[in-house]
Design a protein that fits this description.
The protein is built from eight helices and eight strands. The longest helix is centred in the last third of the chain and has 34 residues. It has a two-stranded antiparallel sheet. A two-stranded antiparallel sheet has the order 2-7. Strands 3-6 form a two-stranded antiparallel sheet. By secondary structure, it is mainly alpha-helical.
């Protein structure tokens, strides 16, 4: 890099002498026309390159009277055709079925190469007896010569690159430029920036349908089909699971609180609150009343028991 560039970092030790010039008598032509050559008398520069083949004959199946196109025999004059307004009606022309192999029309003999054709005459080239070789200026020491042992340490950072090219194709654009010796690094770097930018420009370009653009992109990146299927199926599965109440297939339990707000239905919470709000002191009175009722029942049973026995004896 320091020596092979058109302007190397380290200049050459020798340069061409700017005061040296090629001598007038220096002949650098290696070949020259033969000055002793003469055009032959039989050389005809006006002879044509091709001539008609006089030995050729017309093929037996050649139809000179047939035309390449003929009127369509199946064509019918339209019913609404008015000769006065539309002119005389003529059947449309179609390819002549007899001329499928190209054997119709006037026949002419083919052209062949002219054996006497030689073209323009020019004397042959011979070695130049006065050839002096390729001239070059003599070398002298370069007065501006120097040698930088660490040329890259003194270079400034590359902030711009000039690209000169000749092309007839329009809309050529250059993105960022990367200098690397690894193809993998270049591919990864392009995937991060250039590929996305190129896809955006391709999708925004006119004249190509959205479906065609998507199919072309999916052909370059097949993984897009998997992403598309997942994007469609996942919402459908989640919606189905929510609507079916889970995987057991049982309907989701009703919300008693929401139903109570709509219908004023009594809920367990309301019953517990009513029990808690009972008047204090009633529990003791209820127990006493129950005990009195039980005692009265026992007394009645004791009174009825003897009577039953006596009746039984009388019956005996």
């Amino acid at each position: 890099f320091s020596r092979t560039c058109s302007r190397p970092i380290n200049p050459p030790a020798e340069i061409d002498d700017p005061e040296d010039s090629k001598p007038v008598e220096w002949d650098d032509k290696e070949k020259i026309p033969d000055p002793m050559a003469v055009k032959p008398e039989e050389w005809d520069e006006e002879a044509p390159k091709t001539i008609t083949d006089i030995a050729a004959t017309m093929p037996a199946d050649w139809l000179e009277d047939e035309l390449d196109y003929t009127k369509d025999p199946e064509a019918v004059k339209p019913e609404d055709w008015d000769d006065e307004e539309d002119g005389d009606w003529e059947a449309p022309l179609i390819e002549n079925p007899k001329c499928e192999v190209g054997n119709c029309g006037p026949w002419s003999a083919p052209q062949i190469a002219n054996p006497d054709y030689k073209g323009s005459w020019a004397p042959p080239m011979i070695d130049n007896p006065n050839y002096s070789g390729v001239w070059s200026a003599r070398k002298i020491e370069n007065p501006a010569y120097f040698e930088d042992k660490t040329p890259f340490a003194s270079l400034m950072s590359i902030t711009a690159i000039g690209i000169e090219m000749w092309t007839m194709t329009k809309d050529i654009m250059f993105d960022n430029v990367i200098l690397t010796d690894s193809k993998l690094v270049a591919d990864d770097w392009a995937a991060e920036g250039w590929n996305k930018k190129a896809l955006k420009e391709k999708l925004s370009s006119s004249g190509v349908g959205v479906i065609d653009q998507f199919l072309e992109f999916a052909g370059d990146y097949p993984i897009i089909w998997g992403i598309l299927v997942a994007a469609v199926l996942v919402p459908i599965v989640l919606f189905y699971m929510c609507c079916s109440g889970g995987s057991t297939g049982e309907p989701a339990p009703a919300d008693d609180g929401a139903e109570a707000k709509k219908t004023d239905k009594v809920t367990p919470d309301d019953v517990e609150e009513e029990d808690e709000e009972e008047i204090p002191g009633l529990e003791g009175e209820e127990e006493e009343a129950v005990e009195e009722v039980e005692e009265e029942v026992e007394e009645e049973e004791e009174e009825e028991a003897p009577v039953t026995k006596r009746r039984t004896r009388k019956a005996d």
